[in-house]
């Protein structure tokens, strides 16, 4: 395909205006080698160990960050575990190396060893980034196929073991048995992810197997709000335009048929757009205060969560008489707690309710939002027995400060042991694992239709749970079909409330088990029902004990012994290589000759981020003024195929202007889409404009175009904001 003059002009303007302005330097802040103190990279250092100190410090930081990411992993825990075996091996290796610095002088004087150490830092950084990606749903979807995730995993394992060997870090991990274990873990996780994607539903994954656009918008908006809180002086598009919906009071009508249950405490039933809605009295502070603006943004995000069928829909704020109300969808049957107090719930119906709640939690957690108070009292039930997560008064984003929850005495029954262990001296952040524990307690509450530890003092509950105790699980005599359901439900509960965080099930694992159990229940049919209270005998005579699980341990590690250095021997003669982050800083300061040398040196060691920067410099002719578009094109592709978003964007653009390269619209769109889906704002704008207006002979897809334009506008892209205004669309 050849470009006409109009297309060339459009792309030229788009790139000229946004190419540099929206380049995401922050993406590369994670590729930093942090020295323990000032270190002049051109200086001659007398101590033979000195060149390695900033690299060792950097590795220590990378290992700590990787461990933190792993502890918060929501998906693909087996894959992450295999890589963490390597991270732990590296940790032991580095600590031993630090302890025996004096015995490794021969290696420290070797330029080859020094360059291998730099490569090792790069490999560890990429392992950290890979664990970050595969442990979240949005990150995993960046891999176009399961095979691409598999290929990247095997590549990282191979590079890790090669550099460990080159550095003489011998471990017992490299074995045929370990390779078989790794392959089994990889296959298990990828198969589970495939099943999960197929069954989770439109609230999370759309019909085209992409992340729901609402999820993408919520994640982008949350990031902008976080940036606003960090830099309060800087306003952005989200801050100015993200407002909660306001409903005119005259649009709230009286129900056609009134019932006694139309009023529940401070909540009253009305009709809005022919729908039954719940109007809940709320006190909102003054409209112009910062607190009010923050609350408005929180409520606006809550309004966007209605994209999930298992989260109660919030329509906006309104007024009834002289007080303000929040308008939600109406749940005819009230809370799940009220439902089980009034009726006995059939076992298959319980499984379906649990599956609905799990779907809602997956949606929330994918948005990086924690509910903080998961229990049956905060689940609303529709007339069709659909479960919807509600009562978000304690909800917070994952990275927000933990909420000081009032009514702690009540919710302690669902609280995870790690939170119960919190003290004034040692605070514990509420995490996704905490929420999974609470969900496990909710499942117990649903199974037995009563409060956990109902007649036990709060202090005794805390002591009991911290010592590994849990609520009693015992079943009555039931039909064989019901007994099979109960046993499987019991295993799910126990997997969710494990004391050891590493043994606690992930939400994906729980969802797949509930989904399978729901399919089995569908064959029974009759158990999907509500029964008169007292019909089902919920407790039997026997209690169950938790079973301790054993996990494989990492092997022992050994290091070759090298004789101590003789006194007076300590100098090295090889040139030092500037860390990549320092080169990026030099680029920002306009020191292009210094930056060029840094990018070139690190590129020669295989660092794909350095290859990206080198490709950029070759395209622009920095610093010599001589451009090499062909080599730049090759380097950008290598970086793009290593999932670097800005490299994907620039590689797509290089398809337009590299001599000897015929423009391929399919490939252009593929790499541009990868960059856009990874958050590159300029790519989002260009792709949205293409789909919206048929640029580059692209088929017009208005919905897809508006999706990317909205994301670009959230990212403060001025042209996208103009286009959004023109289309009369808002957040």
Could you characterize the architecture of this molecule?
InterPro entries: Adaptor_Cbl_N_dom_sf, Kinase-like_dom_sf, MLKL-like_MCAfunc, Prot_kinase_dom, Sel1-like, Ser-Thr/Tyr_kinase_cat_dom, Ser/Thr_Kinases-Pseudokinases, TPR-like_helical_dom_sf. This is 5911_t:CDS:1. The chain is an alpha+beta fold. 51% of the residues lie in helices and 7% in strands. The chain has a 5-stranded antiparallel beta sheet, with helices on one face. Strands 1-13 form a two-stranded antiparallel ribbon. Strands 7-12 form a two-stranded antiparallel ribbon. The longest helix is centred in the first third of the chain and has 24 residues. The two termini are 36 Å apart. About 10% of the residues have low confidence.
Annotation, overall tally of beta strands: 13
DSSP strand (E) fraction?
5-15%
**Mean pLDDT, rounded to whole units?**
83
Strand order of the largest sheet: 2-3-4-6-5
What does the largest sheet look like? 5 strands, antiparallel
Our Rg estimate from Cα atoms comes to: 29 Å
Q: How many helices in DSSP terms?
A: 28
Class per helix and strand makeup:
alpha+beta
Uncertain segments? 17-46, 394-406, 541-570
Helical percentage? 40-55%
Tertiary shape: globular
Distance between the amino and carboxyl termini: 36 Å
